[in-house]
Specification:
The chain is α+β, with helices and mostly antiparallel strands. The protein has a single domain, classed as Nucleoside Triphosphate Pyrophosphohydrolase (Alpha-Beta Complex). Helix content is 18%, strand content 44%. It contains three helices and nine strands, in the order E-E-E-E-H-E-E-E-H-H-E-E. Strands 1, 2, 3, 4, 5, 6 and 7 form a seven-stranded mixed sheet that branches. Strands 8-9 form a two-stranded antiparallel sheet. The radius of gyration is 16 Å and the shape is globular.
Length: 157
């Protein structure tokens, strides 16, 4: 068997002490998560987090830093997730947009509200928020999207 971690991105946006989160239906239960999702083929990390935030919340998200890179094995499904989380700001809201399948609603909740017994999709939800609150910010140019096959034509950040 070939081990393949799921590569995901997450958006960490704070406004007035509250964080943008999604309430979603996963395997028959409602949980809370950062706006997050899988990296798609030929997509950069930055493009992926912009897309995922918009699709899941209706908010345009502009990342300004990486808050962390997280590796977590979900024992329920025996799958490993590699998450790149981005700190950033929400720009324009598009409330008329339909949200991704499985997303019940987008909310702005405080860290205390999230930690008060609400079911979280994974322990990464609070880890990402805690790292953002601790001021962890790594430059976006630490991530490089290599766009050529031979390494001779350059890269896109």
């Amino acid at each position: 068997m070939v081990w393949k971690p799921h590569v995901t991105v997450a958006a960490i946006a704070e406004r007035d002490g509250r964080f943008l989160v999604v309430e979603e239906e996963i395997r028959g239960r409602r949980v809370f998560n950062n706006p997050a999702g899988h990296l798609e083929p030929d997509e950069s990390f930055v493009d992926a987090v912009r897309r995922e935030a918009l699709e899941e919340t209706g908010w345009e998200f502009e990342p300004d830093a990486v808050t962390g890179i997280y590796l977590w094995k979900n024992p329920e499904v025996d799958a490993t997730f590699l998450r790149v989380a981005f700190h950033g700001h929400c720009m324009q809201h598009h409330p008329e947009r339909s949200l991704d399948t499985g997303i019940v609603a987008a909310h702005w909740l405080s860290r205390a509200e999230l930690a008060s017994g609400r079911p979280l999709r994974s322990p990464m939800v609070l880890h990402c928020i805690d790292d953002a609150l601790a001021g962890r910010r790594y430059p976006l140019d630490a991530l490089t999207h290599v766009t050529d096959l031979g390494g001779l034509l350059g890269s896109k950040r």
